[in-house]
């Protein structure tokens, strides 16, 4: 009999794996609604929905190997990163989803949230003031007009699976919606700046690198405290705090 593997578990959601089946348990059924709807619409390979019985969604495992993970060097060749870039471009060129959400938050609201979080990081002593101040300056480039695209919203490299130079599956679509395409590219290359050129080559169009770097700062500043409070280590080598330090 297959063992039960706990893939991720915290107060908001949990994902279990039993053989080739993943069971996603989420207290917020709206996230699961988005995940199911997005996987039915996107023009890239996704897991198959096996069944759904709230609060549980059962999906199939996708073939291939995850491109990598934050904090660890990726062993995948440049061609795999380029293939991922091409798949991301295909997603961004798809018709917009009928719901807003995703990484398409109001920029003024996002900037206000970022300023509040920066203040908490400094006053609590969680991060040095100069590190927070510098990254808040870098982050400003993200707050500019952009054309909405169909975005994944949480496109970590661990969510993209490849076999050679072919993308075989993209998982975890609960944050999908209308968003900034460069936010997806930034999330995907967070902590793996050395592969950014390969991704952009596959993506097939010029992108504003200052905006990519800005989103690295925004995402890292907003999540470091949450990660620490939920059992993750943003201070591990190559992770979010190192990403912030790289902007100094």
Automatic annotation (TrEMBL):
Keyword Transferase included in the entry's annotation: yes
GO molecular function (one): transferase activity
Record has Nucleus as a keyword: no
Family annotation (InterPro entries): AGP_Transferase, Aminoglycoside_PTrfase, Kinase-like_dom_sf
One Pfam family cited in the UniProt record for this chain: APH
Record domain Aminoglycoside phosphotransferase: where: 40-204
Alphabetical UniProt keywords: Transferase
Superkingdom of origin organism: Bacteria
Coiled-coil segments on the chain, per record: none
Protein name: Aminoglycoside phosphotransferase
Organism of this sequence: Streptomyces niveus
Taxonomic classification: Bacteria, Bacillati, Actinomycetota, Actinomycetes, Kitasatosporales
């Amino acid at each position: 009999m297959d063992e039960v593997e706990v893939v991720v578990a915290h107060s908001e959601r949990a994902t279990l794996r039993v053989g080739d089946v993943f069971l996603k348990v989420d207290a917020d059924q709206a996230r699961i609604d988005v995940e199911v709807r997005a996987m039915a619409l996107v023009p890239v390979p996704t897991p198959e929905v096996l069944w759904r019985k709230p609060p549980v969604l059962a999906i199939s495992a996708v073939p291939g190997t995850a491109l990598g993970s934050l904090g660890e060097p990726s062993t995948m060749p440049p061609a795999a990163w380029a293939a991922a870039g091409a798949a991301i471009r295909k997603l961004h060129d798809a018709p917009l989803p009928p719901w807003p959400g995703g990484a398409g938050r109001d920029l003024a609201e996002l900037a206000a949230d970022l300023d509040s979080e920066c203040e908490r990081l400094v006053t609590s002593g969680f991060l040095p003031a100069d590190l927070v101040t510098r990254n808040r300056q870098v982050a400003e480039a993200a707050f500019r007009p952009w054309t909405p695209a169909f975005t994944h919203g949480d496109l970590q490299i661990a969510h993209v699976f490849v076999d050679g130079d072919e993308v075989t599956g993209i998982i975890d679509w609960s944050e999908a919606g209308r968003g900034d395409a460069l936010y997806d590219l930034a999330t995907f290359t967070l902590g793996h700046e050395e592969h950014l050129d390969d991704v952009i080559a596959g993506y097939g169009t010029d992108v504003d690198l200052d905006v990519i770097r800005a989103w690295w700062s925004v995402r890292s500043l907003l999540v470091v405290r949450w990660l620490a409070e939920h059992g993750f280590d943003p201070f591990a080598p190559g992770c979010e705090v190192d990403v912030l330090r790289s902007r100094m």
